[in-house]
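Our consortium's second objective concerns turning raw sequence data into structural hypotheses that experimental partners can test. To show how far this objective has progressed, the report includes one record in full. It was chosen at random from the queue rather than selected for favorable results. The single chain below, 216 residues long, was entered without modification.
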Amino acid sequence: MAAPRILILGPPGAGKGTQSSNIAEAYGVEHVTTGDALRGNKEMDISDMDTEYDTPGAYMDAGDLVPDKVVNAIVDEALSQADGFVLDGYPRNLDQAEELEDMTDLDVILSLDVSREELVDRLTGRRVCDDCGANYHVEFSPPEEDGVCDDCGGDLIQRDDDNEESVRNRLDVFDENTQPVIAHYEDDDAFVAIDGEQTPDEVWADIEAAIDARVE
């Protein structure tokens, strides 16, 4: 099998990170995320782009959004160096989707479908260790002792952006900006909708079958 070029789409809480890790391990491809790509290219010289800052890191240090054209260039660089990939977190809007079409051909486009209320339950139930950063969930993956990290004994907290109001705002932003991207791809032969409300193992089985059916 050739190293597949895979795009995974879905709202926050759909399980993209978990399934991307499964794909990367099973198929020996790079897991490319915009966050990792930006952090890995903080010092990239973008002075020729006529932007406010000369490096992506300067935007990040200032707490400003990195412009689309800079993100596009960084993703393009990351994909060009990868022998197969699963792309997670990009494209976030239709303009980026059009840019991606110029960068590479995709073998599989996976879309994880999860209902809004299920996403709210998943995201508001997330707890993070204040010391080591380990992740838990009050329902799906609770610690052995309530409020205490199994790994280091630190306190488990709910992040500020995991309260219900923040979660619903994040989902609104996804619906406005990224849901049109999913609609854009739905007629593509590489597109596969996956029921993301199944167990993680069942989701993975469907993803594996979709990839194997489309990559020789």
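The partners drew two points from this record. The beta strands are 5-9, 30-33, 85-88, 108-113, 126-129, 135-137, 156-157, 191-195. The two ends are 5 Å apart (CA to CA). Both points have been shared with the crystallography group to help prioritize constructs.
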